[in-house]
């Protein structure tokens, strides 16, 4: 029998190197990922970023049937073969570690067996009958068995669960050499902080679980684009071939809003349940369908519900009854420490911060101007209105040329005065004269329109915090807003360009379509807030607007606004890590 007891990593003579940290051992699954795509390997192994899709979940289920703890590393006689499941082997000499699904021994021959959830490739796809990354992973298992068992392993098998086929993989000299080279290259990449370049138009990308993180086609397009072209997407030459829409336009999970005062948020089985003070069930939602829970006022989540949220990656946002964002309760943050370090270093440069801030403010002013041009009533398009539009265009150009952030803030303030000075022209006075917008007011809002605006901005802020955190950026390290008084500076920066497109658009929809009335507001002595019924109407309109699709001006495919929040955060991360030449904002047409 082959000795299956794995030696402990870091105890061999090759590790006697004083205080110097030994090179990392490459897990077998990560070696497969490296050969499949070095960028995926860097995400998963070096940066510690993982994502699931249906392929990953299905593969996990297949291996769960193989990795029965009761049978792990226990040889069993099955016919003429001695079969051992879940064999963990480590070799510091090879630089490899990992679990072999099955080891078969018949006489003097030992063969590793690797389970795959899919079917074998066709002869047209791969004449050998197996993919190179699977063959190298299997050969690495054979090398581990040879190192630990002092016996030659001449072949292995890939078992494809979908078709229940065993495909033999001979361990030729060429495959052994390819495997050792792959291990060495993977160990070198594991020591690097630099992400490998994305694959170009690869058929591997659509099925990859990390495609929404990697954004390969988008990153390649932006890398090939000059900063001047990025700043003028209206004049941006469209791609010669349409860009593949690999990033899903919408999320497959929803947001639960809890507005009932004194309600309890609990967990029953796999469902979250909201109950009133009297115990009446108000709503019941499967945990698998949620990505966020928003609590307005004084509802009470149970400890069991909070633990379930942390396990499922659901963050909880807390708001006052008036709609002001108070804080977040989140699972452990994104594990990408390399990204945080690179971003923190990049943001030490005033030139970098200024270049991003210029683009953010120029984009915001552009989007404000487009909103006014699209939605202002014909009777409000006076000569003064057109003069204001010309001035906004000039201010957008001035923002691109701003010499410092203080002058940029002055430009933003001038544009805001013009925009909100013309805001009333986008409201329909025939719907209800009560809804008018004379001037900005805040903390607390004192009129119905600004009460809706204030709530919309708070919701947009919490959505941008979630998007920034999902990418792995620190929401509190900003480029324009200073990281003071605990404000989420980066989230506030990136939401600027979406204020008119999402938040202001929701206000126009609610007011101009008479979706709210006097009874949906509570007027205090110095404040105006939405009632419970008004908030429910608002949340429905807000989520509807986030799910609306638009055509990306650069990538030329349709996606939703809620997905754009995360995409813009990823584009910023690409710029701050040096993968693309400039950050480009999202400018609507």
Structure description:
The strands form 5 sheets. Strands 1, 2, 3, 4, 5, 6 and 7 form a 7-stranded mixed sheet that branches. A 4-stranded mixed sheet has the order 8-12-14-15, with helices on both faces. Strands 11-10-9-13 form a 4-stranded mixed sheet. Strand 10 (271-275) and strand 11 (281-286) form a beta hairpin. It has helices at 28-36, 38-46, 54-66, 132-149, 173-190, 211-214, 216-223, 227-230, 303-312, 337-346, 350-375, 383-400, 405-421, 448-471, 489-495, 499-512, 532-547, 561-576; strands at residues 26-27, 76-78, 81-91, 96-106, 109-116, 155-160, 165-170, 254-258, 264-268, 271-275, 281-286, 290-296, 300-301, 315-319, 325-329, 521-523, 528-530, 549-551, 558-560. The chain folds into 4 domains: 13-190, Lambda Exonuclease, Chain A; 205-235, no CATH class; 254-329, CRISPR-associated endonuclease Cas1, N-terminal domain (Ribosomal Protein L15, Chain: K, domain 2), CATH 3.100.10.20; 337-576, CRISPR-associated endonuclease Cas1, C-terminal domain (Four Helix Bundle (Hemerythrin (Met), subunit A)), CATH 1.20.120. Helix content is 41%, strand content 17%. It is built from 18 helices and 19 strands. It is of the alpha/beta class and 589 residues long.
Quick overview:
With 589 residues, the chain is of the alpha/beta class. It has 18 helices and 19 strands. It has helices spanning 28-36, 38-46, 54-66, 132-149, 173-190, 211-214, 216-223, 227-230, 303-312, 337-346, 350-375, 383-400, 405-421, 448-471, 489-495, 499-512, 532-547, 561-576; strands at residues 26-27, 76-78, 81-91, 96-106, 109-116, 155-160, 165-170, 254-258, 264-268, 271-275, 281-286, 290-296, 300-301, 315-319, 325-329, 521-523, 528-530, 549-551, 558-560.
């Amino acid at each position: 029998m082959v000795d299956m007891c794995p030696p402990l990593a870091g105890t061999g003579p090759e590790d006697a190197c004083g205080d110097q940290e030994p090179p990392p051992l490459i897990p077998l699954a990560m070696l497969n990922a490296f050969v499949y795509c070095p960028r995926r390997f860097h995400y998963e192994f070096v940066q510690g970023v993982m994502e699931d899709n249906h392929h990953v979940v299905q593969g996990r289920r297949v291996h769960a049937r193989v990795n029965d703890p009761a049978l792990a590393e226990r040889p069993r006689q099955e016919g003429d073969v001695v079969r051992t499941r879940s064999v963990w082997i480590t070799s510091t000499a090879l630089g490899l570690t990992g679990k072999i699904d099955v080891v078969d021994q018949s006489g003097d021959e030992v063969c590793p067996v690797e389970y795959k959830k899919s079917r074998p490739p066709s002869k047209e796809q791969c004449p050998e009958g197996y993919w190179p990354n699977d063959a190298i992973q299997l050969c690495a298992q054979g090398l581990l068995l040879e190192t630990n068992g002092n016996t030659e392993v001449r072949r292995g098998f890939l078992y494809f669960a979908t078709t229940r086929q065993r495909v033999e993989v001979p361990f030729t000299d060429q495959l052994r050499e390819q495997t050792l080279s792959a291990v060495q290259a993977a160990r070198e990449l594991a020591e690097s902080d630099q992400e490998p370049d994305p694959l170009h138009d690869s058929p591997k990308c659509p099925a990859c679980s990390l495609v929404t993180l990697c954004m390969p086609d988008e990153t390649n397009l932006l890398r090939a684009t000059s900063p001047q072209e990025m700043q003028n997407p209206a004049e941006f030459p469209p791609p010669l071939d349409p860009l593949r829409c690999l990033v899903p336009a919408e999320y497959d999970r929803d947001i639960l809003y809890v507005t009932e005062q004194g309600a309890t948020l609990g967990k029953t089985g796999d469902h979250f349940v909201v109950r009133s003070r009297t115990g009446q069930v108000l709503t019941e939602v499967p945990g698998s369908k949620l990505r966020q829970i928003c609590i307005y006022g004084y509802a009470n989540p149970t400890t069991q519900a909070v633990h379930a949220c942390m396990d499922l990656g659901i963050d909880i946002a807390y708001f006052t009854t008036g709609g002001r964002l108070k804080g977040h309760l989140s699972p452990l943050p994104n594990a990408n420490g390399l990204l945080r370090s690179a971003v923190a270093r990049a943001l030490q440069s005033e030139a970098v911060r200024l270049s991003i801030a210029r683009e953010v403010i120029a984009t915001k002013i552009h989007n404000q101007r487009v909103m006014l041009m699209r939605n202002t009533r014909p009777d409000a398009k006076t000569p003064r209105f057109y003069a204001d539009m010309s001035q906004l265009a000039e201010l957008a150009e001035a923002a691109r040329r701003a010499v410092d952030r203080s002058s940029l803030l002055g430009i933003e303030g001038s544009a805001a005065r013009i925009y909100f000075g013309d805001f009333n022209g986008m409201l329909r006075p025939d719907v209800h004269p009560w809804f008018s917008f004379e001037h900005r007011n805040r903390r607390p809002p004192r009129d119905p329109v600004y009460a809706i605006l204030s709530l919309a901005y708070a919701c947009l802020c919490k959505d941008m915090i979630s998007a920034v955190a999902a990418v792995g950026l620190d929401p509190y390290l900003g480029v324009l807003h200073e990281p003071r008084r605990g404000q989420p500076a980066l989230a506030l920066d990136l939401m600027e360009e979406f204020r008119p497109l999402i938040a202001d658009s929701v206000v126009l929809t609610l007011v101009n379509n008479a979706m709210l009335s006097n009874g949906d507001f509570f007027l205090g002595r110095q404040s105006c807030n939405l009632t419970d019924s008004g908030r429910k109407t608002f949340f429905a309109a807000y989520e509807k607007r986030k799910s609306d699709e638009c055509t990306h001006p650069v990538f030329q495919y349709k996606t939703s606004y809620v997905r754009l929040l995360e995409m813009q955060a990823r584009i910023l991360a690409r710029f701050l890590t040096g993968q693309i030449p400039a950050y480009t904002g999202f400018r609507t047409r």
